[in-house]
Design brief:
With 434 residues, the protein is an alpha+beta fold. Helices cover 32% and strands 24% of the residues. The chain has a six-stranded mixed beta sheet, sandwiched between helices. Strands 8, 9, 16 and 17 form a four-stranded mixed beta sheet that branches.
Amino acid sequence: MADQQALDEVVRFTSDLIRIDTTNRGGGDCQERPAAEYAAEQLAGAGLEPLMLERTAGRTNVVARIEGTDPTADALLVHGHLDVVPAEAADWSVHPFSGEVRDGVVWGRGAVDMKNMDAMILSVVRSWARQGVRPRRDLVVAFTADEEASAEDGSGFLADEHPELFEGCTEGISESGAFTFHDGSGRQIYPIAAGERGTGWLKLTARGRAGHGSKVNKENAVTRLAAAVTRIGEHEWPLRLTPTVSAALAELAALYGIEPDLTDVDGLLEKLGPAAKLVEATVRNSANPTMLEAGYKLNVIPGEAVAHVDGRYLPGGEDEFRTTLDLLTGPDVDWEYSHREVALQAPVDSPTYARMRAAVEEFAPEGYVVPYCMSGGTDAKQFSRLGITGYGFAPLKLPEGFDYQALFHGVDERVPVEALHFGVRVLDRFLRTA
């Protein structure tokens, strides 16, 4: 079991990493190297030989391998990203890069997304070095750059340019799973991610006839774009159930003693109450307009207008997604992917999933473990190019009223110290047996 030093270190590592500002503003505006150097130093202190790799100067990734006791076993990838999304200090109760520990809580950007998991990985690995522990499988530990943007400088670069570092890896774990979800009636649910919707970030371009703003213009690019954006924003996507989501609905229905009627999923979701939040975003594709760009002077009709749409599609749903976007944009608006990544699905009947479930149940016997599909995406998408099946498993035991999912990219991001301690214990238990 993880020792007391590991419990102390996970708090210190989380705080230290938060204080290293690795804000990713997109377009290459980020420097992960100081955080990568910090992680590499901790790994070296555990007797490992971490490699630091960059596609672009300052956009640093760290990879190390821990040799297992069973040379015939497939390797397991354990990965976390070092970058974070921007934070406006004026909006926060505590400075977002202070890493302050107050009243048993660690505050700052990255506290849940995902410097907490980075710190857990480091503390477990160092605890093993002190205790002389080796895992059954080889473990490849990776800390990546650029997850909060395109991943081109991070997991994409590693998967494409350094696949040899992940030789033998068949499965991986990373963020967004095994956290406490309180349903409001006393139940504690621990969702483990076994799938992700695909990423389809879109650029829409409408072209028309430029002209004077006082003249009639039936070829107004702004009007054409606005109509297409409205159609996309108001579209009701049809229900599409994947195996992971079907399994989640079946297990949640059983938990609440409800007939799992998958012919009336919307009705079933209503009966699940707050727990419906775990699946409601993943029963359909989605496309949400997020940005508009048009014009340069009030009295000039521009010849071009641009919009951006955050599209997500379920495993097996990209063809329908593309066909629908062709219809919704219409003949006067073109669209293209500005960023595209695959949807993922992982088996919920695998030995690895069973071991994750067992590790959570050992330290949270009052909890209920269920599978779920992430509405967004992670670095698991890029690592899937290497044939690695990804799960979301970054365990945290959270108090009631602590809205974990709202803190992702939110104001006053924070994580309880006790949640970090729980995460270290569960991660240690799982990785020893994985």
